[in-house]
Design a protein that fits this description.
It is built from three helices and four strands; from the N terminus they run αββαβαβ. The chain has a two-stranded parallel sheet with strand order 1-4. A two-stranded antiparallel ribbon has the order 2-3. It comes from Leptospirillum ferriphilum YSK. This is UDP-glucose 4-epimerase.
Length: about 110
Amino acid sequence: MIDSAKNHIPIDTTPGDQEIDLVHIDDVCEGVLNGIDELREWNPVNGVLIRGLGSGKPIIVKELIEKIKIKYGLEVEANIGVRPYRPREVMKTYKNFTPPKGWSPKHNEFRNLK
């Protein structure tokens, strides 16, 4: 969205009421590696090990468009509602997860949009 705004490239969006949880790719990679380390130490006798990655601070797509405008002074040329929701569109992010041992997101550029 930011690149599209900087380059004045319109984007077609859904109605934009769904939540997204933005996490920097470096944080995702670190989280996956931490999860692998935790899995290596896991004893399957203890059951299934389930972990999740996320900032824990989702944002609504329409709000993200407005936050980009405020933070960067850029007008996102968003054609809101042009694209329909996909049949299995996730409208609410899952927040009740346990992250891998020792992991939390370190990059905060997305969190600063709140």
